[in-house]
Amino acid sequence: MGKGKWRWGVILDAGSSGTRVYVYRWKDPAKAIKDASYEKLHSLPQLQSKKKWTKKIRPGVSTFGDHPEDVGPDHLQDLIDHAMDIIPEEKHADTPIFLMATAGMRLLPTDQQRAVTSKICSYFRQHTQFSLPDCDMHVQVIPGATEGLYGWIAANYLLGGFDDPNGHAHGKGHHTYGFLDMGGASAQIAFAPNATVAEQHADDLQLLRMRTLNGAPLEYKVFTTTWLRFGMHEARQRYVDKLLDTYLVEDKQHEVPDPCLPRGLRTTTDGDIIKGKSSEMELVGTGEFDDCLRMTKPLLGKDMVCNDPPCLLNGQHVPPIDFDVNHFVGVSEFWHSTHGIFSNGDESSYDFDAYQKKVLGFCSQNWDEIEGDISRRKGSAAQEAQEACFKASWLINVLHEGLGIPRVGLESTPPPDVNATKGIGEAAKEKGFLDPFQAADKIDGLEVSWTLGKMLLYASGQIPPQSNANLPVGFGRNVKGIPPDFQYAGSTYNSSLTWDEDEDDWSDTAEEFLDHAKSRSSSGFLLFVLILIVLAFLFRKRDRRMRLYTRVNSILRYRRRPGSPRKGGRGFSNLAKKIFGRGAYNYERVLEEGDFDQFELGDTSSDDGDHSDGSGTSRVGRASGLATPKLNIEGFDDLTKPAYPSNAIDRSGLVVRTESRERLYPQMLHAGRRSRTGSPTRQKSPLISPLDRG
Predict the structure, then answer these.
(1) Three-class DSSP category at 148
(2) DSSP secondary structure of 419-464
(3) Residues annotated in a binding site for ATP
(4) pLDDT for the residue 669
(5) Of these four, 185, 195, 303, 494, which has the most CB atoms within 10 Å of its CB?
(6) What is the DSSP secondary structure assignment for residue 642, as one 8-state letter?
(7) In the chain, domain spans
(8) Where are the beta strands (DSSP E) in 530-659?
């Protein structure tokens, strides 16, 4: 049996406020290499995702710290079901699953972290067929610096800095972009210093190694660090604590002035709006934004002792930043705090002076005025409005007082020298990311997510290396060769399997037709497409008609969950029996499920062992009002093509050739999902640790 051309990956971003699952797919490297142009051979793998392939649930996994046994059934099952419905069942065994927890879990005690991750790994193994050979690698609380590095990979991948270094030259031989991220609990920075600083601070950098489609290594030296409790929610909590310490002078007092709340707004210390009389402790808004800026500035920790100069926030060492060539992309709260309430939808870049004027105008209003305006503004809620002034003050302080980013629109930035100006690439000019800071939610309509960076590493690790460059994909200490702390991407490569080229091409054609048909309201167009497909079937061999039938039928029924009642009759199945044979209907329960609409990414959070590498990313999103560059994505001309079953890769990572389950055991097609607990392969896997078996 041929091997399908698609590889799949599942990653769960377990953030402080919730968990989001992302599903990615990319071409099998052997197939991609065969069809690649010269440009694509020198580029990283092309990953795909769709908005409907993501799903988020609340709250975060950190809330299960004192009852970890509930994290699977009460929290993860819906996300697992979502991923299993998207990925063809026969591909599950080949599909890696990762859960990576961020700042919310970092705040838990170590024993609770271990208990939660152990239960998560056990639950995945018992309730899915996804590949999970090593718990420590696949289910972990990742350091903030690692999260920042993954985000840096994602941003540069989407902007094109990796694949087109000449086009993205910023001067001084620099062609990558800096990355800033802020969630609810932490904030991260990642950037590649200029050549001089990189040499002076070599010990501070991480060596990152990826692999282009032709097997050549792609290496970068990146600085990344994180600030725990510098995320927006944690910063607000620290600010409120400071307010109470400053103004609360006696036990009977229950009103404290808050300059970061609009005038007249009264809330609890947890942010709940208070109306009428209350005996609770109240924060009473005064709407004094200048005072808000002044009171949030000390939260930066600029007065902390710097043991390893230079330092930025909280006494943490950061190498000097050359804003002449380091142009930062800010995501998550950096985006939401410069948009939302303050956005007119016409910004092309971040301008400090213009932004501060908008903030001052909004935050000087009475709460009654703001409430009246909320109902007339789409997408604006009371919660967003009441937090907007604090968020703006924290963002301004972090950017300009903390990180030292020049205030564009107010301060003059040092112009690059003549040589640097001449060296700026055309692609960089077109994208507009030449200011020291620019916020982005999507890049050319594609969401920036750190999960994209992780999966890109995994996918690039599946590419066979050039014979003279057999070094693993991943990252670690900035030393030659393989650092002792190297974090392997976790994937393996193998080019010995083959696929049915003809089957891929016909399946892709059918899928594209149906994809267009689903987006049209005309029943005539759909009928025309179906007639074309039926005619195509009649000229194919019976076994290939059978396989293509399963794919077409799965597309039409994507939203029906396995085992749920059918909506409508079985006309298509009955007709298929006449065309394909009596056994056609028996295959329906194992059809690939997928949504083949235009692909999108989802909305906007210590690997050891001898593994090669890999990861996946996706290009996605809504058009953003601010800092949305024009990215050439002609290389994604086949994003709507389908996957087809491939042979399995066993739990130890060895490629094996087997017949599909539906061919060997047709009587088991309706048996449903089974636990992998008793799998002989699992019991023999040398990668399963004693903790994993629990």
Answers:
(1) helix
(2) HHHHH--HHHHHHTTTSSEEE-SEETTEE--HHHHHHHHHHHTTSP
(3) 184-188
(4) 38
(5) 185
(6) P
(7) 501-560+568-590
(8) none
Q: Which two tokens stand for residue 424?
A: 């700026």
- pLDDT > 90? residue 628: no
Residue 106 makes CB contacts below 8 A (sequence gap 6+) with 113, 141, 143, 144, 185, 186, 228
Comparing CA positions, the residue from 408, 370, 405 lying closest to residue 386 is: 370
Output helix, strand, coil percentages for the chain, rounded to the nearest 5: 40, 15, 45
Tell me the CB-side half-sphere exposure of residue 48, using CA atoms within 13 A. Answer: 24
* For range 247-255, the mean pLDDT: 74
* 3-state SS record for 264-313: CCEECCCCCECCCCCCCCEEEECCCHHHHHHHHHHHHCCCCCCCCCCECH
- The helix/strand/coil state of 252 is coil
pLDDT tens-digit readout, 632-655: 333 333 333 333 333 333 333 333
The confidence score (pLDDT) of residue 618 equals: 40
H/E run at residue 334: helix 333-336
Are the C-beta atoms of 331 and 177 separated by less than 8 Å? no
Q: Tell me, what DSSP letter sits at residue 174?
A: B
Which CA distances in Å does 252 have to 249, 256, 268, 273?
Answer: 9, 12, 16, 21
Q: Beta strands 19-27 and 328-332: pairing type?
A: unpaired
User: CA Rg, the chain, in Å?
Assistant: 27
Q: Are 362 and 209 within 8 A, CB to CB? A: no
The single residue listed with the structure tokens 């609810």 is: 184
What's the pTM value of the predicted model, to 2 decimals? 0.73
**Angle at the Cα of 273 (from 268 to 279), degrees rounded to 5?**
50
Residue 112, token pair as written in the block: 């609770």
- Rounded Cα distance, 456 and 461, in Å: 9
55 has which bridge partners? Answer: 21
pLDDT at residue 541, rounded to an integer: 55
Q: For residues 579 and 537, is the Cβ–Cβ distance under 8 A?
A: yes
- The CA distance from 620 to 602, in Å, is 7
Q: How far is CA 239 from CA 229, 293, 404, 600, 671, in A?
A: 11, 11, 21, 37, 55
Active site residues: 147
Confidence class of residue 381 from pLDDT cuts 50, 70 and 90? confident
* Among the listed residues 606, 537, 617, 600, the one whose alpha carbon sits nearest the alpha carbon of residue 572: 537
**568 vs 81, 194, 557, 565, CA distance in Å?**
24, 63, 11, 9
Q: For residue 41, what are its two tokens? A: 């051979």
By residue count, the chain amounts to: 694
Cα–Cα distance, 272 to 270 (Å, whole number): 6
Asked if residues 120 and 73 have their Cβ atoms less than 8 Å apart, the reply is: no
Percent with pLDDT over 70 in the chain:
65
Please list, in sequence order, all residues whose beta carbon lies within 8 angstroms of the beta carbon of residue 34, skipping any fewer than 6 positions away.
Answer: none
Average pLDDT score over residue span 44-67: 93
User: Which pLDDT value is given to residue 374?
Assistant: 74
